[in-house]
């Protein structure tokens, strides 16, 4: 086995024992956000598109999944799939509009569109606005396995995460992923080589949106609620921070970044308003001094070539 | 009573006038963004936060130092500009060689910090700013009751916007600025201090945001979150207008204020989303924005 | 004078109780009694609950004597940042790790629904004071674990609607926040207005957290209704009132805020807020007992008077502690039974009653905000316009949408 493979096996083993040491609900939340950040990283780190509105996919899928599980009584796997697909569809529409602009305009367009989705979610009756959709049943997986127990749910979430992570890994290392990277490095060059750049970008965008949706849908089931928090621009900012802190364009970076930020939010909750200030400061420090992020920095120190 | 679209013309005119007031704030903020973007290639996410700081400075001046509105109108923007100089000198300038996205990320972080600090110290429920006595009362325009202060906001901000446009497009200083944007090395070679110009541009841009904040203070509650709400709308305004032209951003700001005012009468439920919908339409028809040049 | 004597007797009685407690036998699970105050410490509602609510819970514990069956009573507090998922996580940790027995405050409807849902699952008592949603005792009810102490949207609609119509405000126009909460507030109040002989001229819906309300208020102005009802909350209400003052709407029309507390009036200032109708369950300047409590409270809260939510936290915590003592255990069912059997008589409520559906029923008041010239200084803001009896103010048990009580009726 290669060194990388060993690393992943060790990490997976650690994730399997984690709930015996840590707090399952908290760990589930970490996994969901880690997946969210990985999906985001697929776009920003490997395609070079900074979306500042990814919360719209995360939050909307959470609503879709929660609604279908609670009101329509769908089983968890179908509800999650439904959430993922609706986010993917939304990604298609948003992406179709947004890839027309590049760079910072792309960021502003996605931010503005996500704000629009936020306003729609506030007004739409099925989201229950400030109350959110509460008491979402976890249901029975495939109608057989009861997910009510936190431990069972944790392993279900872990399985989803591992599968999605493997998918992202495959995509990055596929020929498609190589084209995305070439777009990131030099878009006009990729264009001149005959690649339909906008189409590649759009596919990457939809994929990233759907995976962000998968994360949101899973989160709404594990925590049993879907609320406006997940659709706000602050949430979009948070996922950017997670990825930036962990290391943009590294495979494991988003996972590390997400865990760090979620832990921070949880343990610093006693400090109240300081949480925002600390988050802002982390942003500033990362941008000014630490642009490689935690994982990027480690890889750099180890002298490994940055070749995901 | 005359009606347009089934709405009494009085009500319509009233709403449009109010829309114009909002449009003035959009125009001043997007103007500042455009000036900064033109020179620094940075999308200043902290713009909304600094607009809020402007409002808070004027509130502090009044409540801690007894300085009235008129002096605040000058002092608070200068205060915000000084904050801008500090931000540019200590942080932003290290990022000019990098991808423009880092500028956006840095200023986003700054926006969080600034908002957090004010929230920590002043809570979220907002502080009232008393109207100066001169502005109490309203003009009766026949079709509506226009508070004097709102009339002042419209006049003042249009004057400021036009002055800025004149400064940049018609004066020698503006010519240096524009040249500096096109080719900084060449301009530097002519003996002009480009880094200083960059700093001053940033200070000027955020100063405009501060000024808008002072003007907004008596209209809205002085609130730590007042900036983050408006900045996203202003971003949409900027995407619609394109950041290529100064006049373009002024016109777009005012126009969108008017359209928003109109929506509040015709279909109030959509008044918070209309700007974004227009943005989507403009992206479809003219991706570069109404006044933009495709780079 | 009589009141002072009463307070003296009460405190003397409390002191004796405290010594008796030492001797009295009782059992506590995990050998400790812990109360968690979950609130917004720094966000939009920090003045509404926040540190003041934590202080209120601590004062209740101190006034109780600080000990239960010889063990210290602990008060924990946490900031849910108005995010239901953080609230749920925190509460779960409180239950699982810290062995918290009861949570109180839980403001913001989203948070309250999340916490009461979890409390039901874990069979713990959750007392809600700050959240207004009437769903807590209706479709999302949890009799036996949820207690809704201070107010809800139905009672606000009832009190404001009824009392304002009685005071002559018989034609209404609503300014409504365009989401579920605003809609239900508008509907509930409109029904009450009509039932009392008034009429509703119309309504305009504004987006949540709108920045400028002037255009909506112009529409209210053209409606010529006597009363403009503000079916919104927080910053939206404050901004509507501000714009109304600026446009001179308050000259010919009265505003009625459906959800507003004294801390909001304090933030607005009387110049702007004068002439506004609102409903609260408690006001510090109503009697000597209230004034004495406010004095004790503000001395420890940076000079800020308590609002009804904070006093509600005090009252609810004290009632819970007394029930634990009377039951001799912290077992949920036993304590809940004692809480329901004992009438509530304290600084917050007189002859209040906790119903089996979790609703605490007590009198509500209608106030008119004073003109600046009538006010003697900071916090002297309200003119008392009338009191509505608890049974009339709150939804009757027969009308409850709570499944357990729908069958019986």
What does this protein structure show overall?
The complex is a heterotrimer of chains A (308), B (295) and C (409). Chain A is an all-alpha fold. Chain A has a domain at 21-231. Chain A has 13 helices and two strands, in the order αααααββαααααααα. Chain A has a two-stranded antiparallel sheet. In chain A, a hairpin with a 3-residue loop joins strand 1 (140-141) and strand 2. Chain A is globular, with a radius of gyration of 19 Å. The relative contact order of chain A is 0.18. With 295 residues, chain B is mostly helical. Chain B has a domain at 25-224. In chain B, 70% of the residues lie in helices and 3% in strands. Chain B has helices at 9-40, 47-64, 69-90, 100-122, 148-170, 172-182, 184-189, 194-216, 226-241, 246-266, 274-285, and strands spanning 3-4, 7-8, 138-140, 145-147. In chain B, the strands form two sheets. A two-stranded antiparallel sheet of chain B has the order 1-2. The mean pLDDT of chain B is 86. Chain C is α/β, with parallel strands linked by helices. Chain C has a seven-stranded mixed sheet with strand order 8-7-9-10-11-14-15, sandwiched between helices. Chain C folds into two domains: 2-151 and 287-359, Response regulator (Rossmann fold), CATH 3.40.50.2300; 154-280 and 364-393, Rossmann fold, CATH 3.40.50. Chain C has 15 helices and 15 strands. Chain C is globular, with a radius of gyration of 21 Å. Chain C has helices spanning 2-23, 50-64, 84-96, 109-122, 153-166, 180-195, 214-222, 234-246, 262-268, 270-273, 288-299, 308-327, 332-341, 390-393, 403-408, and strands at 33-39, 67-68, 71-79, 102-105, 125-128, 146-148, 171-177, 199-206, 227-231, 254-257, 276-280, 353-354, 360-361, 364-369, 382-388. In chain C, strand 7, helix 6 (180-195) and strand 8 (199-206) form a beta-alpha-beta unit. At the A-B interface, helix 5, helix 10 and helix 12 of A face helix 4, helix 9 and helix 11 of B.
């Amino acid at each position: 086995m290669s060194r990388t493979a060993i690393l992943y096996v060790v990490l997976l083993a650690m994730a399997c024992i984690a709930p015996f040491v840590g707090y399952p609900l908290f760990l589930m939340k970490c996994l969901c956000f880690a997946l969210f950040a990985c999906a985001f990283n697929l776009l920003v780190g490997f395609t070079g598109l900074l979306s500042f509105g990814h919360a719209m996919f995360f939050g909307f899928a959470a609503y879709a999944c929660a609604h279908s599980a609670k009101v329509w009584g769908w089983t968890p796997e179908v509800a999650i799939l439904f959430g993922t697909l609706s986010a993917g569809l939304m990604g298609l529409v948003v992406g179709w509009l947004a890839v027309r602009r590049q760079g910072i305009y792309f960021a502003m367009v996605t931010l503005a569109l996500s704000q629009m989705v936020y306003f729609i979610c506030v007004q739409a009756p099925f989201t229950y606005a400030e109350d959110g959709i509460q008491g979402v049943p976890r249901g029975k997986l495939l109608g057989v396995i009861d997910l009510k127990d936190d431990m069972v749910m944790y392993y279900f979430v872990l399985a989803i995460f591992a599968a999605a992570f493997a998918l992202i890994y495959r995509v990055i290392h596929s020929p498609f992923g190589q084209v995305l990277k070439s777009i990131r490095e030099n878009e006009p060059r990729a264009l001149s080589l005959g690649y339909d750049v906008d189409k590649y970008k759009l596919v990457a965008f939809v994929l990233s949106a759907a995976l962000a949706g998968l994360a949101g849908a899973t989160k709404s089931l594990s925590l049993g609620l879907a609320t406006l928090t997940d659709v706000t621009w602050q949430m979009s900012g948070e996922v950017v921070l997670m990825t930036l802190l962990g290391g943009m364009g590294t495979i494991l970076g988003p996972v590390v970044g997400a865990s760090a930020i979620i832990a921070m939010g949880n343990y610093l909750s006693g400090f109240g308003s300081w949480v925002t200030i600390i988050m802002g400061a982390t942003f500033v420090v990362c941008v000014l001094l630490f642009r490689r992020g935690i994982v990027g920095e480690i890889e750099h120190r180890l002298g490994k070539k940055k070749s995901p | 009573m005359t009606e347009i679209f089934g709405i009494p013309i009085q009500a319509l005119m009233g709403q449009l006038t109010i829309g114009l007031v909002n449009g003035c704030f959009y125009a001043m903020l997007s103007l500042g963004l455009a000036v900064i973007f033109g020179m620094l290639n940075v999308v200043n996410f902290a713009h909304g936060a600094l607009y809020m700081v402007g409002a808070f400075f004027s509130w502090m001046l009044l409540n801690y130092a007894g300085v009235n509105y008129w002096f605040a109108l000058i002092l608070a923007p200068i205060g915000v500009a000084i904050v801008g100089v500090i931000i540019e000198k200590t942080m932003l300038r290290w990022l000019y060689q990098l991808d423009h996205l880092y500028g956006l990320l840095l200023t986003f972080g700054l926006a969080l910090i600034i908002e957090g600090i004010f929230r920590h110290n002043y809570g979220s429920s907002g502080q009232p700013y008393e109207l100066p006595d001169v502005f109490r009362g309203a003009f009766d325009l026949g079709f509506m009751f226009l508070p004097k202060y709102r009339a002042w906001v419209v006049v003042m901000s249009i004057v400021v916007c036009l002055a800025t446009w004149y400064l940049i497009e018609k004066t020698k200083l503006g010519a240096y600025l524009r040249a500096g944007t096109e080719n900084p090395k060449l301009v530097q070679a002519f003996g002009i201090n480009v880094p200083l110009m960059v700093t001053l541009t940033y200070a000027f841009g955020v100063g405009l945001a501060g000024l808008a904040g002072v003007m907004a203070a008596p209209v809205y509650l002085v609130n730590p979150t007042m900036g983050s709400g408006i900045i996203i709308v202003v971003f949409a305004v900027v995407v619609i207008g394109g950041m290529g032209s100064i006049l373009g951003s002024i016109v777009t700001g005012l126009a969108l204020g008017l359209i928003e005012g109109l929506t509040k009468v015709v279909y109030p439920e959509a008044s918070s989303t209309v700007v974004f919908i227009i943005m989507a339409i403009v992206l479809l028809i003219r991706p570069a924005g109404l006044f933009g040049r495709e780079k | 004078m009589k009141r002072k004597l009463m307070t003296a007797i009460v405190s003397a009685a409390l002191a004796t109780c405290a010594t008796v407690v030492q001797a009295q036998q009782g059992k506590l699970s995990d050998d400790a009694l812990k109360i968690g105050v979950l609130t917004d410490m720094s966000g939009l509602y920090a003045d509404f609950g926040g540190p003041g609510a934590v202080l209120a819970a601590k004062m209740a514990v101190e006034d109780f004597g600080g000990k239960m069956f010889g063990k210290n009573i602990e008060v924990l507090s946490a900031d849910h940042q108005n995010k239901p998922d953080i609230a749920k996580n925190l509460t779960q940790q409180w239950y699982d790790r810290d062995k918290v027995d009861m949570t109180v405050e839980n403001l913001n409807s989203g948070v309250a629904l999340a916490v009461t849902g979890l409390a039901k699952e874990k069979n713990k008592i959750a007392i809600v004071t700050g959240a207004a949603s009437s769903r807590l005792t209706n479709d999302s009810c949890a009799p036996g674990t949820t207690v809704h102490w201070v107010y809800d949207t139905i009672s606000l609609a009832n009190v404001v609607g009824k009392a304002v119509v009685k005071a002559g405000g018989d034609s209404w126009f609503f300014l409504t926040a365009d989401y579920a909460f605003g809609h239900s507030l508008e509907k509930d109040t409109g029904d009450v207005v009509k039932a009392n002989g008034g009429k509703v001229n119309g309504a305009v819906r504004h987006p949540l957290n709108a920045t400028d309300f002037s255009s909506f208020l112009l529409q209210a102005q053209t409606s010529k209704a006597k009363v403009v009802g503000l079916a919104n909350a927080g910053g939206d209400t404050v901004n509507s009132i501000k714009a109304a003052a600026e446009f001179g709407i308050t000259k010919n029309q009265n505003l009625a805020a459906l959800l507003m507390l004294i801390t909001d009036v304090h933030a607005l200032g009387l110049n702007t807020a004068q002439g506004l109708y609102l409903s609260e369950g408690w006001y510090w300047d109503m009697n000597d007992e209230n004034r004495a409590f406010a004095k004790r409270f503000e001395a420890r809260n940076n000079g800020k008077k308590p609002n009804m939510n904070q006093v509600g936290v005090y009252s609810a915590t004290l009632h819970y502690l007394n029930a634990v003592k009377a039951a001799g255990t912290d077992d949920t069912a036993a304590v809940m039974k004692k809480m329901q059997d004992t009438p509530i008589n304290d600084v917050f409520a007189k002859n209040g009653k906790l119903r089996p559906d979790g609703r605490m029923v007590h009198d509500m008041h209608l106030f008119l905000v004073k003109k600046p010239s009538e006010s003697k200084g900071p916090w002297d803001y309200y003119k008392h316009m009338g009191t509505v009896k608890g049974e009339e103010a709150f939804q009757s048990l027969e009308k409850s949408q709570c499944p357990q009580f729908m069958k019986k009726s």
